[in-house]
Design brief:
Layout: H1 10-38, H2 42-53, E1 58-60, H3 61-68, H4 72-84, E2 88-93, E3 96-104, H5 106-115
Antiparallel strand pairs: 1-3, 2-3
Helix pairs in contact: 1-5, 2-5
Length: 116
């Protein structure tokens, strides 16, 4: 038995396009505001804010991925760029050498404060 695709009607299509446009404008506005205040992106702000709120200002990568609902590969690439800029530091977890921790650095705290 084949299922037939249900396409949006004209009203639903219009609402969908308005929602997509609004989302793009909000994302662009947030990104521009954060970059003007502190030279960090929305994604970087999300990582720094999560780390700043964590006990001892560090999280396992697994937990950071869960908190931000990101794939591990995206998180890994993103943290590599942030580490090169000195915003975070990565290290092995003391209780499990296979797990990595992301730690907020002083430069990361300053960038977060400037953006806030």
């Amino acid at each position: 038995m084949s299922e037939q695709t249900r396409w949006l009607n004209d009203d639903e299509q219009e609402l969908w396009r308005l929602l997509l446009a609004a989302t793009r404008k909000i994302d662009r506005g947030m990104d521009e505001t954060l970059k003007a205040g502190g030279e960090i992106s929305v994604s970087e702000f999300a990582v720094l804010a999560s780390l700043s709120e964590a006990p001892e200002q560090h999280l396992r990568l697994r937990d950071l991925c869960t908190e931000l609902d990101w794939e591990r590969s995206r998180m890994s690439h993103h943290l590599t760029r942030m580490e090169k800029r000195g915003l975070i530091a990565r290290s092995a977890a003391p209780d499990d050498g296979r797990a990595q921790l992301a730690q907020l650095t002083e430069a990361g705290r300053q960038a977060l404060a400037a953006a806030a």
